Amino acid sequence: MPPCLTEQVEREFAHIVQAETERCGGELEQQRIAALFDREFLQSDGPLQLQGYRLEGNGPCRIQLHIAVSGKTRTCTGTGNGPIDAACQALACPWEVQFYHEEALQLGSKAQAIAWITLSGNKACSGKTGAGIDEDIVAASLRALVAAINREQKIASQQEIARTVSG
């Protein structure tokens, strides 16, 4: 089952579940709902993939991201007031982080955490949220950022396809 959802994600996810329920013509089982959550918010299907990172500094920090963009590996570096800001600078994001939330999924020092990031910005940005899970909260946050970017790219691609088909 999906972890505790923030209000923003709850609204987004409700639309996804409703659409899938209508498509299937009946109620969804708990496993199907969990799979929908994983596919939509956690799995980073898209052109951007996080392969690793190196973080330097505390407070103002520098991050080196090892990423794949459409299958091509590259390294980019950014500096910011924290790891997420530095990653946004490294990726030259046209969006801003509108919402950030993190929480532990279990108890103990080896517990996994989930991070949520919602992007906002230009008119093309639809305010999509991404999630990331990891024992390392910075890694979870970076995974959430990548998932949100890929969700934005997916929406932008769908809109471009719709404009092409209708135009």
Report on this model:
This protein has 167 residues and is α+β, with helices and mostly antiparallel strands. It has one domain (7-166): Alpha-isopropylmalate synthase LeuA, regulatory domain (Double Stranded RNA Binding Domain). Helix content is 41%, strand content 31%. It has helices at residues 7-24, 30-42, 83-90, 137-166, and strands at 48-56, 61-69, 72-80, 95-104, 113-121, 129-134. It has a three-stranded antiparallel sheet with strand order 1-2-3. Helix 3 (83-90) packs parallel to helix 4. The longest helix is centred in the last third of the chain and has 30 residues, at 137-166. The chain is globular and about 50 Å long. The termini are far apart. 24% of the residues are buried. Mean pLDDT is 84; it is low at 160-167.
What's this, in brief?
The chain is 41% helix and 31% strand. The chain has 167 residues and is an alpha+beta fold.
Topology overview:
Blueprint: H1 7-24, H2 30-42, E1 48-56, E2 61-69, E3 72-80, H3 83-90, E4 95-104, E5 113-121, E6 129-134, H4 137-166
Antiparallel strand pairs: 1-2, 2-3, 4-5, 5-6
Question: In CATH, what is the class?
Answer: Alpha Beta
Second-tier CATH architecture:
2-Layer Sandwich
Q: How many DSSP H or I helices? A: 4
Binned, the helix content reads 40-55%
**Radius of gyration over all CA atoms, rounded:** 17 Å
Mean pLDDT: 84
Shape: globular
What distance separates the N and C termini?
41 Å
Tally of DSSP β-strands? 6
Strand content: 25-35%
Structural class designation: alpha+beta
Taken together, the total number of domains comes to 1
CATH topology: Double Stranded RNA Binding Domain
The CATH superfamily title: Alpha-isopropylmalate synthase LeuA, regulatory domain
